[in-house]
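Appendix B. Raw example, untouched.
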Amino acid sequence: MTNDNSDDQNKKSQHENEEKDKEKKRWKIFWDKLNESGLLSGKTRNIEVCLGITKGKFKEILSGKREFFPTRYQIINLYTNIIHSNRTPSQLSEEKKAKLKELNIEDLDSFLRFAGFMPEKKEKNEPRTSEEDQSKNYNDRVHRIACRLSSKWISDENFWQIEEAIINEIQKNHLKTKENDFSILGAETWLKENFDESHTQIQEKFKSSLERYASLGKSKFNEIELFELAQSILENLWFKQKQEKTGLLPSIRIVNVDFQSLTKSLEFLREKNSVVFQQIQNSGRQVESKIIKSGNQENSKNITESSDPNSEESTKISTSISLTEATITCRLETSETEVKWRYSSTASHIETMLEALHHGLGYPSLKLSGLSVRSLGKKANSLARVSVSLTDEKSEKIYYGLWVDQNTITAILQAVVVAVKHWLSDTMQNSSSKYQEICTLLAQIFEDLNEGRKALNDYNFDSEYFKKVIKKIEEVTLQLNRENLYDYLNNCYKDRLEYHKHMAELMLSRSAHIKGDMTEARNNLDFVKAHKRIDNQYDPISILYASEEIIYKFFSEDKDFLKDYQLRNNDKSFKFYQTKIEEYISSEKSTSKENFFFDFDLYLCISEIYGNFGRLELYFWKTSEDRKYLEEEAINNFLVAAYFSLKIGNMQRVAHWLTHVSRAYSRLGADKAEDAKNYVNVAGEIVEQLISPKYNVTERTWRQAEYYLALGEYYLHCNDKQIKAKDSNIELSIENFCLALKGAMILSFCRLIADSLYGIYRSIKLIDKMVNKQKNEEKKSKMEKMFNTIIKRHLNKEYLAEITDLLGKTNNGHKDILENNKNLLSEIVFYIHSDSQQINWLKISSEFKEGAKYVWRTLANQRKEQDSLEVKHPIEVEIDEDSFLAKLPSSTEQTGQSQDMQK
């Protein structure tokens, strides 16, 4: 066995020596003919620059003292800069023409054949001509393989796999695999010994890469790592050199990738309030599981199998599927500014980051069709070689990318960038600088939009964020059209620019609804509808549009929408939108069924649709027959909205929806008092976690405004049976409504302002009813004193001055609605601080009631369609009837009330 192995080894060594001798002879013939022709002499200088060697070494090559085996890249460089001298054949001297003709050199392809390489213009699937087959300059075995790989029966997709197999075979059997063979200096020496002919750029990039790895703690390399690193640099430099001729595509370097889990958990509830925890989880997971089943049966198993809320799998809200945000930081060659691309989804980290890259670079029709990641060593810090293939779904062409790096994640992204640049070179033509400019601008636009959405969800209703985004998008679109670049960049960025603009317009509408500016809300909703997204495709933009549309119809007193409050029989009822969401999820427009995932916008739209319909139900239902809708539908919708807000990590919105759950339970009366208190407490705990220690009293007040409102309604509805024994309940109700009003005014939150004013009115009415029934003057005096104390403590002159100052800083951004409410509060505060020592609570309560009605009336009368006559919002009528947001009587209570009326 030993002798056999030794013989095999000797034969292999002998064969390799023979092959080297053939290669030496071949290249000697090439250089001799080239030198004899005179093409390398005379005024053609700087040959060593093209070949990456010194003049002395080149002389040794020509004299036969030094071996030299040039690369394809160097042969092309030699032809372009020395033989051709950047001139067309017609400009060459007659002597040089004759020499070229003598050697059958007509162009770059013939020169490549002369040097023993495949011609530049030949496609991979195009068979070689007989003339090329007969070329004696090819290594016979390489030639044999090249001919077979050039056959048409090998598809591009298979070709990529064959390439990977060949590369891996070379790495496995023909390179040293010992770990830590080379130090940094040893690696540089290795490059000079093995790539002596390399261009100086290769040496520079190789050295800078080694220095970067050293700074990260890697100081030893094996030969495979050095070889693959050099090959990666060589390949990508060749492509760059090729592209520089047409002025295309600047360098795009991935700097970093960050992953952040956005999905939050209510883990703190597991022990404190397991009932609330389970109700949120069960409601949300039922919807989530149903949607996932419509997209992919396999992905729903983890949810349906752990539906028991007491199981170990159900201890966290986020155990089903969670949302991860990938943030890619990159640097473009001509800019020192780093740009960021973001995307959030429930897919794997790699899929999410690739989608972020897709949105950032703007390629529309490329799909990842191949990914190979190969570790080049056994150590944790070893380099990795990443190869990718992207298939253009339109042309079916395949584009390849290769990258070697220590960080596998960034290497994957960088390899995709290389492949995308190959695609761009086929499609973009001479618009490199504009592509880079638009690419950078789009990244900044999305960052601005992202910051604006965060601010809006954090109760900062400044519309300037979104107006800035819209203005930038309009400028970019105008620039593309004006400079005739739209055809080149249309496929890349049209959809993303349009999508971002729609989103900004929708966020403006939501901000306008909160502030009570129906005119601005309508204008922005008209813009979205003008593009007919609502009719053509039900994507997240369309769903969010529908959500804002129903709120607009409610606020602005749309008679068709509000007729008899038939929300569930309307053509655009909740069930209609719920069905449309499910249709979108299960369609190919969402994502492939084999690879289903949620993204941020999809979670957002589901949350808003469910939450907004729950809000309408909370405000509309007013009879005992409506109790089941409030208890079974509205509360469940709020819980679903809270669950999906948790998925995107919007905790302020979670608290918002949970306060609405508490308000719905409060309207059901004392029987649901415990539920109402549980949910308002949970909402309060969430808000408390969001409050920074740096917040002053004013900032804390606006952050907790909705919590105060829900707490006020809890004390108003759920404890009225105990008022005789505990007067502090009504005191707490007034106290919390006043705090809610203060926060609402600071926020410019019109609906919250109206509800707070109305809550104070209802509390006063309840006091009056109580003391009149008891006919106890002492009790009446005590309650009036309590009321005076609370009102003067919260609605004082200092508070009014603070509100006035805040309103002044907004440059009238709050419109007439807030100006009028400011005047209303001014009158109330003036009355409170008049000479009268005691406040007539009935008179002051009517002021609060009229203030609430005025808010709704102002909303209704801002509609474009209204004539000059002032209209009443239906809510105004309910306020006059004391039925708005009133406690819903049970059937037993309803019967009792009817009997009392008959008596």
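End of appendix B.
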